Every structure is written in C-alpha cells, then in structure tokens.
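Page 42, continued from yesterday. The earlier attempt failed because a stray header line got pasted into the input along with the sequence. Redoing it now with the clean sequence only.
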Amino acid sequence: MPQAPTKRYWTVRSSSIHNRGIFARCDVPYDVPIIEYVGEKITKAESLRRGEALVEKSKKTGGAAVYVFTLNQKYDIDGAKGRNPARYINHSCAPNCEAYIIRGRIWIYSLREIKAGEELTYNYGFDVDTWDEHPCRCGSDRCVGFIVEEKQWPKLLRKMEKLQRDKEKERAKAASSGVNGVKTKKAATTKKSAGKKVAKKAGKK
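This time it went through. Structure tokens are written below.
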C-alpha cells in the first residue's frame, strides 16, 4: 500500500483545460503516488441517484461537475464531499498520471517524470456510449475530441465516422430536394409571376 508522499508535489491554480487544475509545484519522479482521491463512500444505487440529479441540474443550468469515482462493484467515491483537491485534476487524452485503486483507496500516480509547472492529468475513462456528452478540451496532439477511455477510441472513431456519413447523406438529400424544387418552379412559373411571389414574401417581412 502506498505511503503518503513525503513532499507535496502539487498545487491548485487556474487551468486552460477547464476552470481549476492541479499542477506540479516541483519536479515529480516517475511512478510515485502524488495525491489520494478521497470523498464519501456511497453505494451504486446512491451513485446513480446523484448522477441523475446532476444530469437534471445540467439541463437547467448548462453544466454540473461530476466527481464520482468508481471504487469497486459495490461502492463509488463521491469526491465532491469533503476536502478533496484531487477532484481538480483534469482529463487529458495524453495524460501524465494514472489512477490506481489499491486496497480500497484511490491514488494518483505519475506515469512519467513530470516537470515543475506541468498540469497533472489522467484519462477519466468515460464510456464511449456517452461520448457526445463529454467534449474534450485538453489540447494535446493526441486529443480525440471527446473524453473516452483510450481502449474504446477505435469504437469512438467508428461512431464519429458513421455520424459524419449520416450528415453528408442528409446534406445531399436536402440539396437534391432543393434543386428539384427550383426546377419545378421554373417549369411551372413565368418570370412575371415569380416576381410577384418574391414581392409578397418581402412585404411580409
């Protein structure tokens, strides 16, 4: 079980990714525990209830922060409760940290050597089925545009490609309908009557 770090590696400040973030206040070695993710231990049922409440809040206010972290098959940790600065760690598609669950506790470890001043990030690991609800703003060269677990990126790509194809089909269909409509009007309408129609529309405005 990891020991609490002998020195404080982190500090909280404004982030270009999202609101506040956690930054390295000094050089961080590779593979060391940086900070523990703490909070209220809740059942899956309570976790679901709080999640649904946050969804409703998001619909009304346009945003709601989610700090619930999966602990095991029975329990989650709600990091919004109590003092938990680790909740400010932002997502990145090219993270320098990883979260590990060790003996019922969640620790944030460094994935590599981190220079002082770098923002600490990890992949939130959201499911691809809700990809369009979680846009990513990490700005890394590896950013896929949405907060999704890396092993699900191929599935995300397929979903995005399908969505793009569907949009192109809709545009093509709309364009085809528009062209057909114009041809029909030209065939059945004289220049004079067409001018009257335009005048009437302009008058309504």
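Notes: The chain has three helices and ten strands.
Reminder to self: strip header lines before submitting.
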